[in-house]
Known about the structure:
- By secondary structure, this protein is of the alpha/beta class.
- The chain is built from 13 helices and 12 strands.
- It has 2 domains: 378 residues, 3-Layer(aba) Sandwich (Alkaline Phosphatase, subunit A), CATH 3.40.720; 96 residues, Arylsulfatase, C-terminal domain, CATH 3.30.1120.10.
- 27% of the residues lie in helices and 16% in strands.
- The strands form 2 sheets. An 8-stranded mixed sheet has the order 4-3-5-1-6-7-2-8, sandwiched between helices. Strands 9-10-11-12 form a 4-stranded antiparallel sheet, covered by helices on one side.
- A hairpin with a 5-residue loop joins β11 and β12.
Amino acid sequence: MKPNILLMMVDQMRGDCLSMLDHPVVDTPNIDQLARNGVLxxxxxxxxxxxxxxxxSVLTGMSxxxxxxxxxxxxxxxxxxxxxxGELAKAGYHTQAVGKMxxxxxxxxxxxxxxxLHDGYLHYNRxxxxxxxxxxxxxxxxxxxxxxxxxxxxxxxxxxxxLDCNASTVARPWHxxxxxHPTNWVVTQSIDFLRRRDPTKPFFLKMSFxxxxxxxxxxxxxxxxxxxxxxxxxxxxxWAEPEDLERAGYNPITYKGKVPKNRLKRAQAAxxxxxxxxxxxxxxxxxxxxxxxxxxxxxxxxxxxHGELLGDHHLFRKxxxxxxxxxxxxxxxDPGNVLGLKKNxxxxxxxxxxDIMPTxxxxxxxxxxxxxxxxxxLPLLNEKPGEWREYIHxxxxxxxxxxxxxxxxxxxxIWYSQTGEEQLFNLVxxxxxxxxxxxxxxxxxxxxxxxxxxxxxxxGREEGFADGNRLFAGCKTKAxxxxxxxxxx
Length: 489
C-alpha cells in the first residue's frame, strides 16, 4: 500500500521559532523530533505572506501569479482544477481535512472527501450588517463553534476573551478547560479520523491549526512557561521608523508602532506559549498514530502559511517581506523510513509553499499535474540532487506598502511598488535584516543584479510594473489578477 500522507499546517508561525534552530526561549520538542526524523529546510518562504494566497499555493502547487492571488482578498471562489487532496483522492487515498481551510465558499471541499472545519473568526461570515441573507450568515458552517457550544454552553463564542482575531499585541490565557481549546480540538478530531478512516486505503490528512495566529490565548500552563522569562527584544533595523508619532502602537490591532513594553512582553509570551501548546498536541497525535499502527507508514510535512513580525522593526502581523513574516518552518519527516531519507538533515536550498503539493504527490507515487509550478524536494535529498531554483519571487498587494521581493536565502531584495523604495539585505551576515545595503555604494552591483531578477519576473504583468529593462513605481495594484477573476465571473 502507498504511504499515508500527513500535512501538519499551523497559522502565522515564524520560521525561527524552533528550539532546534537555537531560538533563545521557544521550546518545541516534538517538532524538533519531526526534524530529527527527516529534513529541516532552513530557507523556506511563503511568496504571499497572508492566509488566503498562501493556502492557495499549498493546495494547488502553483505560484501566486498562476493562482492569481497576489494579495489578500476574501470571497473569491476557489475553482482550481487540480488540488493536492483532489489528486490524492483520484489515486485512491481517503482524504480528510481538520481545522482551518480559509477557502470560499467556506464549505468548499477543494478535493477532500470531508472537511471538519474551524476557520477561526471569518469576518464575512460573522458581520451581520454585511450578511443580510440568511444563507450567507453562516455561524453554523464552523464545526468547532457548534462543538464548543455543546460543551461549554450555548452562549459561548469566539469573542468571549475580548481579543481581536488579528490582534498581535494583546494577550490573555484561555478561560475554559484546555481540552476545549481549538488547538486540542484539531487533534481530537484528527484522532477520531484515525478511528473512522477506511483501513483499505492509504490516507491523506491535513491537520490545520488556527494558532499561533491571534487571538493570543494559550492555556494558562503554557503561558506560565514564558511569562516570567527574559524574552528577546525584537530586532530594529537602521531603516525602521524610529518614532511613533501617531502612537499607532497603542492600537490593539496595530500593524506598526511602539507598543507599551509590558503589553509587548505578554504578547511575546503568549505567542511562544501557543507554539509550545501546538507542539505538545502534536506529540499527543504522534502517540495516537503509534497506537493505531500508522506512524511508521506515514510521511509527514510540517509547515506554516506565513509568519508573524511580533515587533520586528516596530512592525506586527504579516504580509510584509521581512524574515519574521515571510520565512516559515518547513520540515519533511519520515519516521518509518518510507522514503529512505538520510535523517537529521538541514537543507539550505530555498523552498516555497508551492513545493508542498509536488513533494507529497512524489512521496505518494502520484503523477504531478502540469499546472503545478512547484518542485518536489525529494530529489534534493539524494546524493546527486541536480539543479534547483536560483531564487524565489514573492509579493503582496498591501496598499502603500505593496511590494515584491526576491531571495535565494542568502540575500534578499525588496521593492516597494508604490514608492520605488528599495532594500537589500545580506541574510548570511545579517539574518535579522538590521542593515539596508541598498544605498551603500559598495553593493550597487548586487542591487542591480537582484533588480534585474525582479524585472524579469514582472515582465508582462498586467499592472505594468516592468518593461523588461526597468521597474516602474506607482502602478495600480490589485489583490487578484484578471485571469482568476475571469474564471469566477
